[in-house]
Amino acid sequence: MRSLAGDVLLIAVATAISRLLGLVRDASIAGRFGASAAYDAFLVAFFAANLLRQLLGEGALATAFVPIYTAIQTTDEESDRFASNLLSLLIVLFPIVCAVGIVLAPWYVPFLASGFAPSKMALAVSLARVIFPFVALVGFGAVFMGILNAHHRFFAPAFAPVWFNVGMIGGALVLAPHFSTPVYGLAVGVLAGGAGQLLSQLPALRRAGFRFSFTLFPVHSGVWLLLRRMAPALFVLAVSEVNLLVDNKLASYLADGSIAALQYGMRLFQLPLGVLAVSIATALLPRLSMAESERDSARFAGYVGDGLAATALVLVPAAAGLALLGGDVIRLLFEHGSFAAADTLRTARVLSFYLVGLLPYGWVYVQVRACYALGRTMVPLMATLASVATNVALDLALVGSMHEGGLALATGIAGGVNAAVLLVFLRRETPWTPLLKRLALVGVGAVAMSGFVFAAQWAVRSMSVAVRVFAPLVLGLLVYGLFVRRTRLWALIRRTHAAPAQLS
After folding, report:
1. In total, how many domains does the chain have?
2. Is 502 domain-assigned?
3. Is residue 362 a contact partner of residue 273, using CB atoms and an 8 Å limit?
4. Does the pTM of the predicted model rise above 0.90?
5. 64 and 369 in contact (C-beta within 8 Å)?
6. 457 in a domain, yes or no?
7. pLDDT in tens, 418-432
8. Would residue 413 count as lying in a domain?
9. Quick check: is 389 in a domain?
10. Cα 79 from Cα 449, distance rounded (Å)
């Protein structure tokens, strides 16, 4: 088995390629549609399909699948029977789900964005019907991802979203001009990208030794266990999606482009989360599952401590960097075509408020996987309920005075509540002394880095926007990297053993 750092690096490289292409995708969409009413309609139409993708695919199913697959992986034949039975059942289930989603679009879309004008609502309903089969494509892809991750084959599933981005870029740049309503090209691109994301994992799946056999009955005992594990996970994700639902619903009453501004800001917010935090959590899950199955509590706590510390190591400087450079980054990536200077200011403001929750949301990725490895599936539910209650209360309190900025701030604070509740429930599995020492060092390094970035910004303030982004960025990375290399934080990157690194 490769070291944890090696697996994290492998996943991060693949995910970075995907996320960078995602920025190209967002820049292409911004140039074509800007922060417009049509793109607002697309985002609402995509919400329902994306929600079910989380519930039935990449979220609950994939997270619950890996510990069960790892536990029954006594022989290739037994694990193949479990996965084949699950895929066979999904072959029957997903067409039904998609048909229902297409038929019911005129009922659920108005609920999601009740503030839309009639023409905007009609467009959103029509787009939702085009997009909905995406649920099935990514649902099957999520099972493939779970199988590959359980075999410690992380690169292919982490790289698969690249093809989704390619599909959406093609939809925005190639297909959109051929439609009388160009945003339909983007919807078709979603389906093409979902198909690419699914099919791209097949070669790696075959190399991993998986052999599919269509089997509906008898239902494998692992499938029943998966359903029991998924039940609270489904509820957790459904409840957590209330945050986005409330945000979109309230934003639909604000000026055109408010939902789009939230989306563009969230894309940049999710960049370090997707590349760094998710990579760490993904590499940890099979290790946590194995440590728990062997009842090795010391190794389990070591992985939890490493995951939380490594997440802070990368996300704290990322938050500081985005807070300082966010406006120019948005200007460089998005301010062209239909995306105006006013859209840049709105998006930068939204991003600054989202950043309050960057580290907490990163920690939640690690903490939730630790809970599932332990079989404590109700703990994430309680944390999510507290988070959603906080988010909704703050949404209602802040949207009137701060508009979309208030919605973003509520989301950031709610992430902190989620992480805090999970920390309480995982307090016995968290090695507090080494973790706190690492966090103190990370804070010192981030402050030092921020000082150099601010100075570089001032020095190049009259130069082009590209120079204003890359000069401070490169200097900040060098300063922080040197700080990590010269302190005990370097041991966290190099460490390959099971017990937590000790800091004296």
Report:
1. 1
2. no
3. yes
4. no
5. no
6. no
7. 999 999 998 888 888
8. yes
9. yes
10. 48
